[in-house]
Amino acid sequence: MENTRRFCVRVAECRWILPLLFAAGLAFCVIAESGGLLNSYTRFALTTMAVNVILCASLNLVNGYLGEFSVGHAGFMALGAYASAMLTTRLFPQMPALFIPALLAGGLVAAGIGFLLALLSFKTRGDYLAIITLAFLMIVKSALENIPWVGGPRGIAGIPTLTTLPVAFVAAAATLWTIRNLIFSKFGRAVVAIREDEIAANAMGVRTREAKILAFSVSSFFGGVAGALLAHQITFINPGSFDIIKSTEILVMVYLGGIGSLAGSVLGAVIFTLLSEALREFGTWRMVILPLILVLLMLFRPRGIMGLKELPWFLPRRELATRRKKS
């Protein structure tokens, strides 16, 4: 039994495992998309799973690593979705080559608004961020419903189907890689220090407000990218697609997988997507069961399955060596 445990630990610590998994996953996605290996429903579900990984990892940066509580992530999704959809349907139609710039544009619009929101909201502390982000979500939804140029309450239809399974997989992997490098950088140490004790971090010279604003902006950027991917997957969006229910779903994913953990973000997104698809036959009761899961998590396991834990694959070599010495 001890030999088996040591073998599993050595396999987990191999640095080539993660690149190998990425290459195998990408090859599978390409074959599944082009070779008809999977039916359209399965491909759609797997694409949704990849988009959920982006949403979960990006919100985890604020709610997990930074230690704040944001409930308006769907608002940044809406900004990214509408910005990219306007580019590919209104301004530059019939130009699929602009899809990647449209994704980045959606992320930048969300990041810009997130930066402005962070400038205002991080003057306060505690639970006020949850109230501010909730109000922000309502403002975005109401504004989109009252702007005729973006379709008003009818939304935008006829969005080209550009989000394929390989595209979503690569976007999810790029998101995890970027956030992982950010977390284990000097900036990431400052973010974690703020979560543990903001007053102590400030006393040690950490620019807490700047770190908060940057973390929130990065989280908003990837939320916008996820919204852009979703818009070009379902080909139709309206303001009702990005309401408080959508934000609740993202929160369930984050706290199900585990706060402060990229592996937990992946796990939470996978479990939630599978559970959500399995509960579709329950109709409107699905919207009762999923929030109930969040309530139960907060009562019995507030940090989630992988809360504040990380797989060795996501750790830099220097961090892995430090943890070995401590153990």
Structure overview:
By secondary structure, this protein is an all-alpha fold. The chain has a domain at 16-32 and 40-243. Helix content is 72%, strand content 0%. It contains 14 helices and no strands. The chain has helices at 2-12, 17-34, 40-66, 73-91, 99-121, 128-145, 165-183, 186-196, 198-203, 208-234, 244-257, 262-278, 286-300, 317-326. The relative contact order is 0.16. The model has no long low-confidence stretch (mean pLDDT 89).
Topology overview:
Layout: H1 2-12, H2 17-34, H3 40-66, H4 73-91, H5 99-121, H6 128-145, H7 165-183, H8 186-196, H9 198-203, H10 208-234, H11 244-257, H12 262-278, H13 286-300, H14 317-326
Helix pairs in contact: 2-7, 3-7, 3-10, 3-11, 3-12, 4-5, 4-6, 4-10, 5-10, 8-10, 11-12, 11-13
Q: How many distinct helices?
A: 14
Number of strands: 0
Average pLDDT works out at: 89
Structural class, by secondary structure, is: mainly alpha
Regarding quaternary structure, what we see is single chain
Query: Which strand-content bin applies to the residues?
Result: under 5%
List low-confidence stretches: none
Summarize the amount of helix as a percent range. Answer: over 70%
Q: SSE order in H/E notation?
A: HHHHHHHHHHHHHH
Choose one word for the global shape. globular
Distance between the termini: 19 Å
